[in-house]
Design goal:
Layout: H1 2-15, E1 24-31, H2 42-49, H3 52-64, E2 71-77, E3 80-87, E4 90-99, E5 101-108
Antiparallel strand pairs: 1-5, 2-5, 3-4
Length: 120
């Protein structure tokens, strides 16, 4: 009895005609992050701007601006930290952001995963 069940299961696995290949569309984007809302000494402001959390969060936003279904594939370049003086009461303090961050975004190619009936 067990041999029949195992052989039936093996036959179904070998006989199934599933395709696991999904095609993607890729797009490279270059964008800038926003400055931190608070002013800090230059070293701290740069450290705040280049935090991995900020980079991950902004790269996700960059891809989502492309439309529904776009996701981050890779962060190719972290960009350069650019600072500007706060002025006023906060003399000597700066706000920093990252410029020219390059992100690769991907999206499933329409029709590549059997969403259209009658096409394989």
């Amino acid at each position: 009895m067990k041999i029949k069940v195992i052989s039936l299961f093996a036959l179904l696995v070998l006989g199934s005609n599933t395709v696991l290949a999904t095609e993607y569309i890729y797009r490279d984007l270059m964008a800038n992050t926003l400055s931190s809302p608070s002013c800090a000494p230059e070293v701290e402001a740069i450290a705040q701007a280049v935090k991995p959390y900020n980079l991950k969060n902004y790269s996700k936003r960059f891809c989502q601006t492309q439309g529904y279904g776009w996701h981050v594939e890779a962060i190719k370049d972290n960009g350069n930290a650019i600072c500007r003086d706060c002025g006023g009461v906060n003399l000597g303090k700066k706000q920093c952001h990252l410029e020219d961050v390059v992100v690769t975004c991907k999206r499933i190619k329409p029709g590549s995963v059997g969403m259209l009936p009658g096409k394989s």
